Input
Amino acid sequence: MENMLFWLMFFTLGWTTIDGSEVEQDFTWHLRKIPRVISERTFHLTSPTFEADAKMTLKRVCGIECQKELPAPSLSELEDSLSYETVFENGTRTLTRVKVQDLVLQPTPNITTKGASVRRKRQVYGTDSRFSILDKRFLTNFPFSTAVKLSTGCSGVLVSPNHVLTAAHCVHDGKDYIKGSKKLRVGLLKMRNKGGGKKRRGSKKNRREANGGDQTEDGKENLKARAKAGRKKKESARGQRVAEGRPSFQWTRVKNTHIPKGWATGGSGDAALDYDYALLELKRPHKKKYMELGISPTIKKLPGGMIHFSGFDRDRADQLVYRFCSVSDESNDLLYQYCDAESGSTGSGIYLRLKEPAKKNWKRKIIAVYSGHQWVDVHGVQKDYNVAVRITPLKYAQICLWIHGDNAHCTSG
Output
């Protein structure tokens, strides 16, 4: 744990060493004007069947150089992809068409593809560099406490008192909602109380009455039965003492789910990896500190070129797993990297720690959603990456609209 804390401190501060001297770099959250995504019309759709398999089924992923060569989408194409489905707790579904205003096209990142080499499919590359967060001092505190688990087996991140950001394929395969997402729940980490809860208090008379009275034969038999059950409970508790103080999940139902039409094609086309993100509205608000959204900067603006995220990898039995790694390549909408991450961590919020403008303090923000392992074409050769979907200004505007219900709070980010 001490080694992990060292690396956490090292890679989240904006320092570099030049000729043996430390120089602080200018890693700052630069606010920019956000385009407006405006809800125009909402239509009722037929209820989904909730029969899709819980796996990503993309037929083709455009490679890095392909992303670079693709023509920029037209405004109408962007508006179609940013229109969104909403599925409600009772199984009903709507489609909302949107309009985009005040859009300023951003320059394409300087994509530098490295020599392509064929790799076998894997999600841990070389030495496993993941950390299991076991100490409750870290587990229940920010930023680790923002990570949540979905009942469908994915991860997510708290982005408001009522909302969780995750990957779209965790609830929808591009054509239909997956099995189990109709009664979708979100698990928030909490620590088990030592001692097994509060003891009930009351007078001896009340306890005798509750036990059926201790003066009759039936009452005596009842007391004996309860005493025997109490002994069994104590014996069982002895075997479970090891589990006391370990984390567990507090599950909350999901009120509704928003998915961009760029992903939820409904069979009209292939789901686009660029739109593999979804927002879940919880039925009950939580009281934990959440992480705000941020615009994804280019690789050159990442401290140490590093990204960070925490999730519930399936091979580590409900442990919260943290990792960081450098970003290898980028396109307009995706980050390509080799962060060690097994299934279950998809949907995690990828974050950075940068300075706030005109302030000395540092702030973490979500800048991408971890989508998972994908094969892409690089110069005609299949190459695999662990891919994340960047939060661009347009996606920021859309997710902000989902969170607040209007765009009045979404003018800059």
